[in-house]
Amino acid sequence: MTESTFAAIRRVAAGLLVAAACAASACDEPLKDVAGPSPNLQPTFSSINTEVFETTDLAGRTSCVTCHTNQGRNPASGLNLRTDPFTALVNAPSRGRQGAILVVPGDPESSYLIRKLEGRDISGVRMPQNGPPYLTSGQILVIRRWIELGAPNN
Predict the structure, then answer these.
(1) What phi, psi does 101 have (nearest 5°)?
(2) Alpha helices (H) in 36-96, listed in sequence order
(3) What is the 3-state composition of the chain as percent helix, strand, coil, each rounded to the nearest 5?
(4) Please, are residues 105 and 91 in contact by the beta-carbon 8 Å criterion?
(5) What pLDDT is recorded for position 34?
(6) What does the buried/exposed string (b/e) look like for 10-41 if buried means 16 or more CB atoms within 10 Å of the residue's CB?
(7) DSSP states of 49-60 as a string?
(8) Model pTM score
(9) What percent of the chain has pLDDT over 90?
(10) How far, in Å, CA of 94 to CA of 18, rounded?
(11) What CA–CA distance (Å, rounded) separates 117 from 57?
(12) What pLDDT, on a 0 to 100 scale, did the predictor assign at position 115?
């Protein structure tokens, strides 16, 4: 291989690396835009737990643990998101809707949590019960994505 051929391959490789880095950094920006009042929200359980379940967001939507806690009260609908939220949600039956599973890994459409957040085909009222404000469609989209990815405990 000649020196000029080697230099040309290096330039192409460098260009591809720059393009890949630009594409990778651009992937995060739409997610931040979509997440709206929870700009740090990611499709991971730890992020959803911190940004949605435990935190009142910038729009004023109250945290889920305001009602779903055993600290000083009985958790709403028996759903305690304070002590072990992953176990309380994933493959767990709903106490409000017989036969419904709160989070079905890989299947957001069958996950009763999504229906409660969107306010469709539910028993009782849309969550949070004291809304509006409710979660935005972008925040719900991030939760849907976590479920689509198999609802891992990450």
Answers:
(1) -110, 135
(2) 45-48, 85-89
(3) 50, 5, 50
(4) yes
(5) 76
(6) eeeeeeeeeeeeeeeeeeeeebeebbbbbeeb
(7) IIIIIS---TT-
(8) 0.78
(9) 62
(10) 48
(11) 15
(12) 97
Domain ranges of the chain: 1-28, 36-148
Query: Tokens 């889920």 map to which residue?
Result: 64
Q: In the structure encoding, which two tokens stand for residue 57, read together?
A: 């967001």
Name every residue whose Cβ is closer than 8 Å to that of residue 9 and which is 6 or more positions away in sequence. Answer: none
Residue 104 makes CB contacts below 8 A (sequence gap 6+) with 91, 110, 111, 147, 151
pLDDT tens readout for residues 29-57: 456 567 788 888 999 999 999 999 999 98
Q: Residues of 69-86 as b/e, b for ≥16 C-beta within 10 angstroms? A: beeeeebbbebbbeeebb
d(Cα 35, Cα 33) in Å, to the nearest integer?
Answer: 6
- Other CB atoms within 10 A of residue 104 CB: 18
